[in-house]
Design goal:
A five-stranded mixed sheet has the order 3-2-1-4-5. By secondary structure, the chain is of the alpha/beta class. It folds into two domains: 53 residues; 185 residues, Nucleotidyltransferase, domain 5 (2-Layer Sandwich), CATH 3.30.420.10. The N terminus is likely disordered. The longest helix is centred in the first third of the chain and has 27 residues. 52% of the residues lie in helices and 11% in strands. Endonuclease that specifically degrades the RNA of RNA-DNA hybrids.
């Protein structure tokens, strides 16, 4: 049978499938545009509704791909200039009353699959976990830098944040040849050119990936601390000053991981 005759046969066969079978086909990963074109001539309401859902899903996917390309604009510009190992850096945990500040540095490949990284604060825990799996699978390098509550108290939260970022960068292998950082400029970092980008976690691809990696790491750490220091709700609030956390402070006083220079923690010393 000739290829075009085979195609006509397959198209006719597909059009005669049950609506449930067509619905399943349109949600599969290998939909043939020729089949979709043929199905548009199918007058059954169920088929047309399935096509509407297919079109909406396609439009959503195209919008995501477009957003990914927007997030990659700065990295693409840098690669055109010859940079290969571009690190994104972000931190999580500047605002909590307890626990460390955690920074992450991530280097992604130029041919990174179309994974939609976005500001970690905008994502559910389940979605972040899925994206962590993608980072683990595809990233050239990813690291974590930590500054404890005690170290935060010894300096201040900004200095501790910078130190956590420096620690994450120092661990990267290969070393980055360009660094993109969310909002912070590291005066003590001289190994590569750097840029501080305001709201970088929502506008720059590698910074968004670092934001997700840091947040998931810190949330897991705070859940472990919840077992060590119950009563503050660390597993739910990650150390932020929620009602449950403040009630725990009033009842139990500060734990060993509380930031004792932060109000209202110091009120309970």
């Amino acid at each position: 049978m000739k290829n075009d005759e085979k195609m006509l046969f397959e198209l006719a066969d597909l059009a005669n499938l049950k609506i449930s079978e067509i619905q399943a086909y349109l949600t599969s990963s290998d939909v043939d545009p020729n089949y979709v074109k043929a199905l548009r001539n199918d007058s059954r309401k169920g088929v047309q509704n399935a096509l509407l859902r297919y079109d909406k899903a396609l439009q959503k996917q195209e919008a995501i791909l477009d957003q990914i390309e927007k997030l990659k604009v700065r990295e693409n510009e840098l690669r055109q200039q010859g940079y290969q190992f571009i690190a994104g850096v972000d931190e999580v945990g500047r605002g909590p009353l307890a626990g460390p500040v955690v920074a992450s540095a991530v280097i992604l490949p130029a041919d990174m699959p179309a994974v939609y990284f976005n500001d970690s604060k905008q994502l559910s825990h389940a979605k972040r976990q899925s994206l962590i799996a993608d980072i683990e699978k595809y990233a050239i390098a990813k690291t974590i830098g930590i500054q404890s509550a005690e170290e935060i108290d010894q300096t201040n939260i900004l200095m501790a944040t910078k130190q956590a970022m420096l620690s994450a960068l120092d661990q990267l292998s290969p070393s980055p040849d360009y660094v993109l950082i969310d909002a912070v400029y590291l005066n003590d970092y001289h190994q590569a050119p750097q840029e501080a980008i305001v709201k970088g976690d929502a506008t720059v691809y590698t910074i968004a990936a670092a934001s997700i990696y840091a947040k998931e790491y810190r949330d897991k750490l705070m859940a472990k601390y919840a077992d060590l220091y119950p009563g503050y709700g660390f597993e739910a609030n990650a150390g932020y000053g929620t009602k449950q956390h403040l009630e725990g402070l009033e009842k139990y006083g500060p734990s060993p991981i509380h930031r004792k220079t932060f109000a209202p923690v110091k009120n309970y010393l």
